[in-house]
Structures are given as C-alpha cells and as structure tokens.
Amino acid sequence: MRFIRFRACPLLRPSIRTPASIRLIGGFRMPGRTCAASPPGSPAGCPLSSSSFFRGLMPLWFKKKHRTLLRTGGHSDIGLVRSENQDAYGCFPEGASDAPPERLFIVADGMGGHTGGRQASRLAVATIPAVFFAHPELPPEDRLRRAFLEANARVYGQSRALDERTRPGTTCTALALSGGLLYTAHVGDSRAYRIREGRIDLLTTDHTLVEQLRRDGLLTPEEAQRHPRRNVLNRALGVHETIDVDVDGIGPPASDDRYLLCTDGLATLSEDELLEIVSSLPPQEACERLTALANERGGRDNATAVVVHFF
Which residues, 6 or more positions from 272, have their beta carbon under 8 angstroms from its beta carbon? Predict the structure, then answer.
C-alpha cells in the first residue's frame, strides 16, 4: 500500500484510561472491556436516598431500553503472497455474556516496511476502544473522533524516529452501536457496507487518489477500477501529526440487517458476491468464506472481514 499527501485538521489529545484486561481475539492482542461508570450509591451501610436510588436505576433502564441482539464474526488471513499479516480487527467489549448497550467493531490495514504496518494497525485497534468507552458522557460521534485522533497520535509518535519515506500508518474503519443507533468512523480505504432487504450499500468513501479523481469527474468508475494507482492513499492514521476523520450517524439497525467491515484484501470480490455470502451464511462462516475466496482469486494481500448481524 502506498501513500501520498494528507489534509490536516487540529489535533485533539484526549486523556484515556488503559483497559484493565488484555486477551487474544482472532490471533491479535486486543483490549478487553473498559470500566463502565457505576450507578451512584452511598457508602457501605448507609441507606440510599430516594434521589440516589432513582439515579442508580437509570443506567439499568437505559441498558434495557437500548439492548440490541446481534451475532458477530471476524476473520483475518495473511493471503498467499505477503510474508506478514498487517491487518487487525476487534469486536468490543469482547467476551460479553449479556447484550451491552454499546458495541464497537473495527478493522485496520497497516502499511509500512518491516513490522511497522503490523504494529500500526494493532495499536490503532487497541487504542480506539480504550478512548471510546472511557468517555460515556460525550456524544458517540465525539467519542469516535477523539478515539481516532488519539490513535493517530499514538501511531505517529511510535514511528516518529523512522525515515518519513517509510513511516508506517494504517487505515481504520469502525462501526459503533450506542443508544440504539449506529455510527461509522473511517480513515483510509477499508470499507463498511450495510446489507438490508437484499441490497448492499457502501457506507464509507475510499480516501484514495483515484477515488478523489473519480469524485472530481476526472475518471469514470470503469477507469478508476483499472487505474494503476488505485491503491494510493491520500489519508491514513499515523503518517502525519494531524488527520481528518469521517464520522457519520447512520440511524438504527433494522431487524435482519447485516454490516460488513473489510480491508482492501477483499477488493477482488464484487458487491454481488459480498451480498450473497454475507446474506446466506452465519457471521463467522461468512468472514471465513470471504477471505477464502480472496485467496482463490490470488491472495495478493492480507484480507480481513468483520460481520455483524442484527436480529
């Protein structure tokens, strides 16, 4: 993956709390669930006042009101050509036994020589949920933006000593569920799709040179698809000190909606193929089938998929 000049925006450096637990998810070390705010109470042995009692019930009411049932799957494959898998992914909070009111799903595609790209993607996937879940008082859009800006700062700081020509970075695409509504956050050319009632819709815009030329009317869609520089990014996490992040609210999920997050290793698959596989298989099987099909088409890149099925 190659990279060119970025646009800039002011850098925000939020304070974050490190997750208390780390465990392996899909072969990657990812943070566990961060601390949630406890309901207000009183010192041990002291009765609750009526106001404290009702304040304590509010988080429980909120969780029940916005509880959403879903199934998830995720899979990453090194492919048949690359010597290292620089993709990463995560589903948070991982290992939850109930239906938490907030969920976060992420895919990232690292770039850079040696192990830099691998480290960049994993650092982004570890940082974003830590920041997102640490600020429940903020609107979800603000929390996602803070999380991506902090990930950018951390990846940039980690690689600052490297030669700028080989500075590592990573794409990143996230889907968040909060308060019964869905939000996307996005930098790079990893993608988010929604599959609803037999139709597939792309929810993100590729931050690539060729996509910008197509949007400006300088290339047709057919020319863009064949362009030799179609993989050249014009935005990614960690390459520059500042970064623009696309954050969008996409409304509530409908029953039987499916959402696909994927890296560009699945670029050899058509939207019709994505629709058929994700619609017809359980989430984990769908992810494994998508990456296997990418390998059948040559496996020239790492391929990663996360599928979320609401029901």
Answer: 200
- Pairwise CA distance, residues 148 & 173, whole Å: 10
In angstroms, rounded to a whole number, what is the distance separating the alpha carbons of residues 44 and 100? 27
- Cα–chain center distance at 51: 39
Q: Is the pTM of this model over 0.90?
A: no
What CATH topology corresponds to 2-35+58-310? Phosphatase 2c; domain 1 (3.60.40)
Domain boundaries, the chain: 2-35+58-310
Residue pLDDT, tens place only, 22-60? 233 333 333 332 223 333 333 333 333 333 333 333 344
How far apart are alpha carbons 147 and 139 in whole angstroms?
A: 12
Judged on CB neighbours under 10 Å (0-12, 13-18, 19+), 11 is middle
- Distance, in Å, from the CA atom of 117 to the CA atom of 263, rounded to the nearest integer, reads 14
In sequence order, what E strands does the chain have? 2-3, 22-25, 28-31, 70-77, 87-92, 103-111, 169-178, 181-187, 191-196, 199-202, 232-233, 246-251, 258-262, 303-310
d(CA 108, CA 123): 10
Angle of helix 283-296 versus helix 271-280 axis, rounded to 10: 150
Alpha carbon distance 213, 45 (integer Å)? 67
